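Notes from the 1:1 (GR / supervisor)

We went over the backlog. Supervisor wanted to see one worked example end to end before approving the batch request, so GR pasted a single chain during the call. The sequence is below; no edits were made to it. Supervisor asked that the structure be written out right there so they could see what the output format looks like.
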Amino acid sequence: MKIAVIGGGAAGFFAAISAKEHHPESDVCVLEKTNKLLSKVRISGGGRCNVTNGCENTKQLADGYPRGSKKLKKAFKVFDNKDTWKWYESRGVALKTEPDNRVFPVSDNSQSIIDCLQHEINKLGITIIEKAGVTAITSDDNSIILTINGEQVKYDKVIVACGGSPKKSGLYWLESLGHKIENPVPSLFTFNMPKEPITELMGVVASNATVSIQGTKLKSSGPLLITHWGMSGPAILKLSAHGARILSESQYTFTAQVNWISITNNEEVAEALRAIAAEHSKKYISNIKPFDLPTRLWDYLLTKCEISLEKPWGEIGKKQINKLVTHLTNDIYNVKGKTTFKEEFVTCGGVSLESIDMNTMQSRIVPNLYFAGEVMDIDGITGGYNFQAAWTTAFIAGKLN
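Structure output shown during the call:
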């Protein structure tokens, strides 16, 4: 059996390995249009490679996908994050789970993952062909014919693992076969706030903020990082993933509401501030920070409320308490534009899951054609979810059922 895997990224390598392990007698090759193999693996997680997420069960794991969650739940019963862990550890790559549940190699170096995948490819005798651009795909009887650099080559089975395309036109070769394509839009991006003075606090992290988008039901919690262009960090990236389509439709111009302390009961916040005022009445308001807020952020919020940093806590009146409560729990920021979170660049959209049998990853339109990874309309939040979707779908596609 002659098998081609299109794409030399995480999903492509894993699908090729799975295909060869499930069908040892077959001839497997990976076709990569560039000369850069596993490039996303190399840069992911700041060069450490966030292999997967350490959540406890498949329901929690599936919850990390704004698109594809329901269908993946079934797929995770075949190969989930615990299987990923076993797969790498059994091949000599020790993994560790960090407090936020992200899983990395103990080496803190993505090269460990790259070396492992390349070693498996070599060991199994899988051929890698670089600069092999596939421009067309046709089906003939039970075969798939690929046009590679202008030349037609026939295969028994083909797995498409070429990654996401930023434009729908980049997936025309799959759409022309009859597959439904969900329009690609960016996911996992940061918020630009060109006119907001908060950017002067770049580098400050609010450890547990809740951000929502005005006029929508979108809401997300977690660490929030202030940058020189606006806001980033897990809370923002998660929100951008869940709101990818809505925010694209708004042309990335919207109002973000920030609750810096993730407490929704305003009376509880006011009570906490009154208690500090009673206990530290003679101390400057800037010296006693409530809710473990970073110093620069607390000073910024005081200035925003027009409260002197040298005002004693005991002199804070009811009006000023109310003002502080408002800015702590419902601070308003105008967002105009986005910045791609380079390491984690992900596209929402791709080949619709309606066109794929998710039990086998085989096309419902073209027999013997399979899909794996980000070319499908599946994407996750930051934290190792996108790699897990790649490992899972690639493992199943490689069975070639």
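Supervisor's comment: The radius of gyration is 25 Å.
Batch request approved.
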